[in-house]
Amino acid sequence: MTLSSYKSLVGFYLSVVLLGTSGSIQAQAPAPNSAQGKTEILWLGQAGFRIKSPGGKIIVIDPWITGGPKTPAIYKNDLAALGHVDLLLVTHAHVDHIGDAPDLAKMHKTQLYGPADMITPLITLGVMPAELTHRFNKSGRITPLPGIKVTAVKAEHSSLLVWKNPATNKLESHHAGEAMGYIIQLENGFKIWHMGDTGIFGDMKFISEYYKPDLVMVPIGGNFTMAPDDAAHALREMINPKMVIPMHYNSNPLAKGTLAEFQADMKGSKIQVIPMTEGQTVQF
Fold it and tell me: Which CATH architecture has domain 34-283?
């Protein structure tokens, strides 16, 4: 499917409907012929999401689950409740992003994909076996599953791996390369830009113009990332996607940005803001 034909197809945000008490939101749209299923996104809290692709593949990003203060209890108390994971992505090594990724990779015998210099210390320290990892870097594009492409893009942030040395029982800090974001293209051409943790930077405009994401997952908490007004400016002036899901707020007292502030800063924009609560799902 060409980009132009897909673009003409995407009237998927014609309506957004709250469904009962299950906390699910559905955006109705005609499905492309190449993949008749829907895309389903579950917010696990902070920057963690579980994405079910139109082809039925499960993608998990930045799974801070057992340690996440806002993780739904069903997952916090039982990682297996996520179900099988087909693709595991981590944007950087901070604990609220790498979280339970190593355990999930080993549980499901699924490769952990992430920044090259984050993956290397995971291997050399014995956290992960090399065969369950994949190293790549910014502008690197992978096809980890049939019909699904992931491109690593810039994020303006740091990355540090804190590891408990079993020999000394002490915490150690290890350099873990540079943080990244991901452009995830699903089987039907739908593109999600998970920004990871990032401050505002000029190349957001280039990334948007070149990759043309349909949905952006944007951090709004401030302190470690963009605050609500920063994120709104980036979306309005540089990115201009069809839809945005705010993330990376409500889980750390130092990151004080709120959904209400972000919604106020986005008021009047044609960009559809899709607010979520932890444990809620949206469908496209």
Answer: 4-Layer Sandwich (3.60)
